[in-house]
Amino acid sequence: MAGVMTRWLSLLGFLGLCTLVPASALGQVLVEPGTADCSTPRRAITTWLDNLQEETLHPQQAARCFDWGAVRISDHSRQQDISLRFKHVLDARGLYVNYEELSDEEEPPEDTDRVVPFENNLPGFYLVRKGSSWVISADTIRQVPNWYDETFAFDLDAYLADAPAFLQDSVFGIAWWQLIGLLFLIFVATLVRYLVSWGVQTQGTRLSARVVKGLDPDLLKHAARPIGTVVMVLLIMYVLPTLRLGVDINRVLIFGLRVAAAVSSVLIVYRLVDVGADIMGKRAQSTDTKLDDQLVPLVRKSLKTVTVVLGVVFVLQNMEVEIGSLIAGVSLGGLAFTLAARDTVANLFGSVSIFADQPFQVGDWVKMQGVEGVVEEVGMRSTRVRTFYKSLVSIPNSKVADGDIDNYGKRDLRRTFLTLGLTYDTSPAQIEAFCDGVRGILQNNDAVWQDSFYAEFSGFGESGLEVMLYFFFDVETWDEELRARHLIYLEILRLAEALGVGFAFPTRTLHLETRAAETDMSNRPSFSPEELGATVIGFGPGGSLARPQGPDIGSPGFRPGAVSAEQGDDPDADIADSRE
């Protein structure tokens, strides 16, 4: 609090120095104090304002350049009161009349019969030509009471008349009562800012608990602070005119307050984007798709960018910067920038297309643009894919949107197709038994899709008799697919061993002119059809020979993440026990 007060006092000191240079010092003296000259718009305004300064107070002369006849006001005291109130309105609103911008020609162009000093801030204030004189219009005079009531929240003149005389003394061009009132106003406004911020944060936390659970309280805290700042600024702007500070001080203070209110308003929207994105993120976590989890950060960045751009324009408008000419200049530069950044724009639209079509999700196994791997992130410019050799590849979104995408993650089933080669000395009965046994193994495995699977004798190969194996896995992950295939292949090996079936490998037959001596060759065991059938049934569902979970060899399996749990705390002790 002390630091804030120190900064405000320093600002007041600087503003007080600014008031040492009166407004009339900017340019030559056109009308001598105590006289009246309404021959030009500039001289009419000079007559009114310069004769109402504290050091040159001539209210009778100040009221000369008004169109009193049109409003039928002949009472001089009322005329002086209205002219003085009108000056107070301009001072309180920080409306500084730049005499140099007003015409000083006694014979302006014939089509010029009206002069508006403040076209944007006070358009109802204008001067009209009456014969050879310029006067403040009757419409302006009629609006002065309304402007006065709108500007001043309450009138302190009655209270100041009974106040101690020392309060009227000045320091740095500011009366003591004004300085004390300004410090008190800053203190009250700061307290109001704290209370409003606390109230918004408290009520926002309660309301958010009903909408979404787990919302970050710091986000609401950061959003509540600029709301309190806006309320503080509005309070100061509402009460500030009552202090009757000079036009120079009010001009600077009002400018700073308007900029502070504009910046705080933009900051409110900026912080609310974080709050909204956090709510969307919580809801996205509860959905099955992962692409919306990636969409939330992209939406957050986009909304923040738009907020900053529009916020800069809004702040510049409050700083009374001519936005039209600025935008025109930016548009020419923006055209050149757009041509230079057309690839970036194409990637941006590509990201929009990806989020609209959703050809893949974060975590899907995809193959696109010659890259195969798992999608890690979809950004505004590129899509990042983690390959299976753990490198990270960034693919421009424009190419992703225009190219072919093979999404393995969208498969509802995972196909397996292979050809098993049996030796040519395998009998037809053994082939039939082998194919039946393989189908029994597939039917006995829960990971195999039971609606369609094949194991058929498909052809005569160069090295062996070919058996086609075709089936689908109904599993979610690649790890489950690998494990299920492993178990099925083990069962096929056991089936071949039990049936006396051998697997072929590439061979060549060599014919010689001479005949070598005959030697004994190992003979394969022969089985009767009944024995073959019993073996096949044994490998089917519920059979005594079936091992769908793999043979039990006493090994823990050493799978990732389960080694320590299966081996125990002391693997060496387990090995020693097994050897004993």
Task: Produce the secondary structure layout.
Layout: H1 2-18, H2 41-50, H3 59-62, H4 68-71, H5 76-92, E1 114-115, E2 127-130, E3 133-136, H6 138-151, H7 157-161, E4 170-171, E5 174-175, H8 176-211, H9 217-239, H10 247-285, H11 291-318, H12 323-340, H13 342-357, E6 365-368, E7 371-378, E8 382-387, E9 392-396, H14 397-402, E10 405-407, E11 414-422, H15 428-443, E12 454-460, E13 465-473, H16 478-499, H17 529-539, H18 563-567, H19 571-579
Antiparallel strand pairs: 1-2, 2-3, 4-5, 6-7, 6-10, 7-8, 8-9, 11-13, 12-13
Helix pairs in contact: 5-6, 8-9, 9-10, 10-11, 15-16, 15-17, 16-17
What does this structure look like?
- This protein has helices at residues 2-18, 41-50, 59-62, 68-71, 76-92, 138-151, 157-161, 176-211, 217-239, 247-285, 291-318, 323-340, 342-357, 397-402, 428-443, 478-499, 529-539, 563-567, 571-579; strands at residues 114-115, 127-130, 133-136, 170-171, 174-175, 365-368, 371-378, 382-387, 392-396, 405-407, 414-422, 454-460, 465-473.
- The longest helix is centred in the middle third of the chain and has 39 residues, at 247-285.
- The chain is an alpha+beta fold and 580 residues long.
- It has 19 helices and 13 strands.
- Helices cover 52% and strands 11% of the residues.
- The protein has four domains: 30-151, no CATH class; 175-321, no CATH class; 343-410, SH3 type barrels (Roll), CATH 2.30.30.60; 414-508 and 526-551, Alpha-Beta Plaits (2-Layer Sandwich), CATH 3.30.70.100.
- Strands 9-8-7-6-10 form a five-stranded antiparallel β-sheet.
